[in-house]
Amino acid sequence: MLTALDRSRSVAPPGFSRWLIPPAALSVHLCIGQVYATSVYKNSFVAHFDSSATAVGVIFSIAIVMLGLSAAVGGTWVERNGPRKAMFVSACFWAAGFLIGALGISTKQLWLVYLGYGVVGGIGLGIGYISPVSTLIKWFPDRPGLATGLAIMGFGGGALIASPLSRQLLSAYDSGYDPDVATSTASGGALVALFLTLGIGYFVIMMFGVANMRVPADDWRPAGFDPASIKSKPLVTTASVSAANAIKTRTFWLLWIVLFCNVTAGIGILEQASPMIQDFFRGGDGKSEVAVATAAGFVGVLSLFNMAGRFAWSTASDAIGRKRIYMVYLGVGMILYALLASIGDSVVALFVLLAGIILSFYGGGFATAPAYLRDMFGTFQVGAIHGRLLTAWSAAGVAGPLIVNGFLDAQGKPGTLTASAYQPALFTMVGVLAVGFIANLLVQPVPERYHEKTTGKPKEAVA
Q1: pTM of the model
Q2: What pLDDT was estimated at residue 300?
């Protein structure tokens, strides 16, 4: 049965529609995007394990670090074995992470949750994140930004499904849990049932993607697409660079800095979104003008910006170019952060708009990265190169919260902060984005000495 997962067994037959590939990729990214919904049961974990919020928050940090590490280490394996086998392995690790986590919850062993959801599940995250990327780019050489945006949009949207779903499941498993009350906590039994349900459910959905994923034949190309047209576009190569050679280039490390800066700035807001909006509109009496439930609603709106930005900005990059779109992410982002720090507390709607656009750039940066790598290094091992680049995400996942929380800890206790307490952190993010902006300006084509020798001439095929 496992031979059906081999790359050679997943080559698409003549006449296969490439538009069947994005839904298969989306099924994986919607599932692993659940990692952004861990805050839903954070308070319940704190109560169940009688632990601190910091100790529970480590679960998310471990998962993100393992995402980057597993993507970097397993990238070449994914390229060699194909997306179908990689997606199957991802589904197994992701589901196993929930099951091991459920065991940790039932035995009140937090370290088992670290091992399960954090380490094992994190490996599934990394492999699942990169597994469809290079295949999508090969199916859509004419519109790589649109293709990767369609799939990676699912990673941002996964939390939009997982958050309300998790709340409703917890209320179904524990009659004492109120999904509309932020301070309500679920019982340990309900948490175990939630993890078991999500683990099994996500495995089934991801297997849909496995069954429907195909790779194009080596000599395939879209109808009407002329590979020679790529040569007319600046900073887009028709050559190929291996993953081993890519990390030897200055271009790769400049892009690493670009992604690190973009993610560090975005995750700083994402991680603090709910308390941040309450603190920005805290009155002199110490009470916030924004209720907990309202703040949660605004966080949902910000998640929509994050998800929409992954598709909209990545698709736009096909028209205006990857380097220019990152100039928008980073350059306009600096202006927006400065405005958020200066006047973001004047009107709630203005805060949501500024933060929303910033998070759309955060999501767009993720979705555009694979297409940027394809432009610079070709399609040969773009998935493996993407995996190595995602170590920037791991580093930013640690740096972003540390920067913001470090400043906030120096300003006072949670629940007593105001907008002014956030200004040092927000202006620091302006500087972080400035570093990324400069790095992006320095990006140049990869020297020919790093190119692979290729032969063969593609033939016309149907779309």
Answers
A1: 0.84
A2: 75
